[in-house]
Amino acid sequence: MKTGTPINFLARLLIDYLVLLLAFLCIYHYIFGLRSVFFSLFNLLLFSISITSWTIIGMSVHLYEEFRTRSFAYEFIAILKTTLLHTCFFTFLFFYCFKHYPYPRTFTLLHALLIFTGITVIKFIVKQSLLRLRSNGYNIKNVLIIGTGDTGMKFYNTITSNDHFGYRCIGFIDEQTNPYLNGQYLGKISDLSRILEDHEIDDVIVALPETQNTEMEKIIIASEKEAKRVRIIADCHRFCTSTASMNLFGTFPLLTIRTSPLDDPAKQRFKRIFELCLTTILFITVFWWLFPFIGLLIKLSSPGPILFKQERQGLNNKKITCYKFRSMISNSATINTNGQYLQATLNDSRVTPTGRFLRKTNLDELPQFFNVLMGDMALVGPRPHPIPLHQESKNTIQNYMLRHVVKPGITGWAQVNGYRGETKIEGQMQKRVDFDLWYIENYSIWLDCQIIFQTLMNMIKGDKNAY
C-alpha cells in the first residue's frame, strides 16, 4: 500500500483526527448542551478508540494511498467505505460491549453523518488546493526519463498535458538523442550518476524497450546510490487498461492487464449471499402468487408452455439453460433464411398480447431468479445472449468475450442505460459490451443496488427499448 511520504501521510492523518474530534464535540454539545463536561475519562476513551479504529480501517481500504494521478471519485469511495465500517464498529462495540453507554442512538448516526461530510469536504478542498498549487508550479515532483523512444515520449506527453499530476520532466537520458526533445537531452546512460548529482530529481522513470534491459541493472544501482526512487514502465504498457494491477508471485512481479473487484473471492461470496437473500425474500413475499398469476395469463393468451427455455453462454463461456416466461407464439422461428438470429423487433408478430406486456415491464425475465438460486446467473451482470447471437458477436465485437469473466445477470449496467433489446443499428452491440465491461471493472455492492433500483423504475414506467 502506497501512502506517499511519511510527512504527507502524517499530515493527512492529523487533519482527519481533527475532523473526528470536531464531529464528536459538535454532536456531543448538540445533544447535551454546552454545560455538560466533555473531557471525561469515558469520552477520552471513546475518542481514542475512534481514532484508532479510523486509522486501521482507513489504511485497510486504502484511504491514505497517493491519489495524485486519480480523480476525487476514488478518494470519495474510500471515505465512504471507511465511514461505514467505522460506524458499524462503533455501533457494535458500544451497544453490545459497554453496559452503560450514556448516549442515544442518534448520537452515533449524527456523528457518522458529520464525519462523512466533514472528511469529504476537507479532502475535496485539499485536493483542489493541491491541483491549483501544482498548476502554479508548487508541490511538483521532478522526474528524469530514461528512454527517448515511443514509450518515453508518450509518458512525457502524459505528464506535460496533465499539470494536476504534479510531475515535471527535468530531461531525458538515452544512448541517442531524439529531435523532439527540445534541448532536454542530458546525456547517455553512462552519465547517469553525474546527472543525478547535478540536478534535483525525485524519481527516475525507466522507459526502455526490452531489447535494452541489459542496461537496467546499471540504472538501478546508479539511481539508488543517489537515493532516487526508480519506477519502470513495463514494455507491455500499450496492452494495459486503467484497471491493470501488479502482484508478486514469489519473487516474480506479475502484471494483470485488466482486473475487476470481482476477482476477489470475498467480494464474490458477498455478492452471492446478497443476491440469495434478496431472491429468497422475493420468493416468500411476491413470487409465490405472482408466478401462478402470470402463468395463467400466458395460458389464456396462447397455447403452449408457460416457461421458455433457451441455451445461453454463462460464466467462463459455459452453457446454461436460461428461463423466461414465454412471450411469443409457441415454436416461433428464431433463425432467418440467412442463418442469422431473429431478435425481437417493434410490433413483432411473434409476440403475444400478454407477452408484449411482460416484455415491456421486464416481467418475462422473472423466472431467471431460479437461475440465480441455482448459481448459473447473478441478479446484476452482463445479459446472456442466445447462442446464435453470441456466435455472431464474438467474432465481430471488440472485447465481447470479456463479458464472460463474471456470471451473467438478469439486469445490467448496459440495460439501465438504454442498451437492451434489438441491436440492428451499427455500434449498439459494441456500446452494450462497453457498458458491461465498465460494470465489471467498477463493480461494487452500491452499484448493484443502483442498477436494481433503476431496473425497478424502468419496470414501473416501461422501457421504450423493450418489445
Automatic annotation (TrEMBL):
Transmembrane portions of the chain: 9-31, 37-64, 76-96, 108-126, 276-298
Entry's Gene Ontology cellular component terms: membrane
UniProt domain Bacterial sugar transferase: residue ranges: 271-460
Entry GO MF terms: undecaprenyl-phosphate glucose phosphotransferase activity
E.C. number(s) listed in UniProt: 2.7.8.31
Keywords for the protein's UniProt record, in alphabetical order: Membrane, Transferase, Transmembrane, Transmembrane helix
Entries under SUPFAM superfamilies matching the protein: NAD(P)-binding Rossmann-fold domains
A Pfam family: Bac_transf
Compartments it resides in: Membrane
Keyword Zinc: no
Topological relation to the membrane, as annotated: Multi-pass membrane protein
Superkingdom, taxonomy of origin: Bacteria
Protein family (similarity comment): Belongs to the bacterial sugar transferase family.
PANTHER family: COLANIC BIOSYNTHESIS UDP-GLUCOSE LIPID CARRIER TRANSFERASE, UNDECAPRENYL-PHOSPHATE N-ACETYLGALACTOSAMINYL 1-PHOSPHATE TRANSFERASE-RELATED
UniProt name for this protein: Undecaprenyl-phosphate glucose phosphotransferase
Organism of provenance: Pedobacter kyonggii
